[in-house]
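Moderator note: this is an archived Q&A kept for reference. The question asked for a predicted structure of one protein chain; the sequence and the answer are reproduced below.
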Amino acid sequence: MDIPKIMTTTRSTSDNWIKYSNNAEGDVVLFCFPYSGAGALAYKSWRDSLPDNIGLAAIQLPGRETRFSEPAYEDLQGLISDLGHAITSHLTKPFAFFGHSFGSLIAFELALWLKRNNQPTPNQLFLSSFRAPQLPANKPHSHDLPRHELIEKLKSYNGTDDSILKNKEIIDLFLPALRADLKICERYQSPLSPAVEVPITIYFGEKDELVRSESLSDWRLCTTHSIEFKNFEGDHFYLNTEERAKLIDHLTSKIIGKSDTTMDKMSSKI
């Protein structure tokens, strides 16, 4: 696959952006984008659930885990541009994007960036628990809350490990990246967002109080291909429960089905 060369920036030259968590030689690569405050470790448990022909590549953003020494991004444009430059050299085989919450925003905007820059684009987008781009975030916002109020809100979200919330040193390392991610999410709105040219699957928890099901329907306007909506039992972090197995089974079947179709088309041209 010939990939056009594009200019790189200092932040995009590091391989720290991508952590391969299982068979990097899979026929298809699933790039996974973390939710607010999280890093590549959010997908560590996925590696044993994917079949051998799907490689798992978890995205590691600055400001967390192995990249604590780097400041987290507070602007979406800079994040997508630097991540886009960093990821292009890894797009040498068919691939799909999965993102949860903030990760869905990154996955969608990165797919648009790749298209604009004449780079390979994902075969499929799997977007979980994030409102359609045309809609504003719910208010009041959380990114600028006082420390104790933000921690209490995190407890109510049920998505942050208690060992983090109860450890002052760890939480103080964790909060700057979380605030930066939330700031991007809460300021994001793209009323005239262009459409991607790939199928989209939208996942959501039935009891999600942060992203209600009615805020998802306008994702239909964001693709020129098919779109599917699939619900799971649970709240915003349903994917950190036993529902994870059902989620992975579903996206795996979609990826394998798409991969088989792609291979059939390639074979017919030989």
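Archived answer notes: Residues 243-268 form the longest helix (26 residues).
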